[in-house]
glycine--tRNA ligase
Amino acid sequence: MTENLLEKVVSLCKRRGFIFPGSEIYGGLKGTWDYGPLGAELKFNLKEAWWDYMVKQRENVFGVNASILMNPKVWEASGHVESFTDPLIECKTCNERFRADKPADIKEHENVHIKKKEKVSWTEPKQFNILVEAKLGVVEGEKTTVYLRGEITQGVHVNFKNVVDSMHPKIPFGVAQVGKAFRNEITPRNFIFRSREFEQMEMQTYVKPDEKEAMDMFEFMKDLRMKWYLMLGMNKNKLRFREHAPDERAHYARAAWDIEYETPWGWDEAEGIHHRGDWDLSRHSKFSGQDLSYFDQETKERFIPWVIETSAGAERPLLYFLLDAYAEEGERVVLKLHPKLAPYKAAIFPLLKNKPELVEKARGIYRELKIDFNVVWDDRGNIGKRYYAQDEIGTPACITVDFQTLEDDTVTIRDRDTMKQERISIKDIKSLLHDKQK
Ligand SMILES: [Zn+2]
């Protein structure tokens, strides 16, 4: 099953309304994807699970929601303009980009693949900027070139002073953001794994400029992030940490680890944990002329904090959760998504749709559950078919209203994973669905 698992998931996503190719009726737009009714719910649930775990459940952590369009100087300060305006070629094996005018770097990279007995081939050199340009302004000829943000990180760092002045946080403290970013990827690939428009979920934690404090926070964050995947039911054996080799680290990184997932195309990145040192704040201090230091009330010291970052996409974990959840069991296809992530928390069925008393009773339960949960109504076909249809989209529970319900206010509740059915009282449905969310 693993060799065509990706195709099966892509096909399920299209068929059942999770993910469609972007602007499909016009022939699509390379590297873009649209989320359908169930995909939009799944993505929302994933981001909410991240925010809840990383922000709401923790202390001394704040959220921001910065603009996608930023002053172009931000990208000079961050190093993005400089690093991405050269003629670049891209390694077709690992998608890493190199300056076409640096033969030594190219040779060195080729040797890495040759040593691993992998083939090396390069794209044609292109004058390349990974930042997506946009023109802002109303008068032709007076428009300013801006960039759609290439990462959400900088929206946090440029607001460092605002957050400190308004919230008076005690160091160490975290600032989180979730939002869209854009990159001119040369080679979008593997469904939603690499696309030109994507969402990121990031936590920037500001710590004292001290190697021990920084590395303690780094280890804490590595552990915290791995636990998040496990909490949401991802298969432990398909997850691992990988440390970046010194030559693959980004320009700012003092230490860098990835959490990786074993995909059908091999181990690949889920997210990164980076020790960014004082790179961001000192660069923004320099380029903006603003003082971005922090005054520690306890020790009476003033310093530029260091940053420990956790940086995940939304799409990669989403894809990995889908791959991880997909199972074929006899006649049925089932998505064993964690109930927190599942688009619908339960489906409500009247046993027969032509019996008004059953339909009315079931509608009442449906309306009552809808106040607390995203539940779905289905009265098409026989019950067995309805179960299978819900299994395929990951609905954890199916509730059937039958003639006995009219007599004793009990329903049949059927579990997606065990397929076991039990009779429970209507008044117990809510607490049962709540328990599944844990
Ligand atoms: Zn390569």
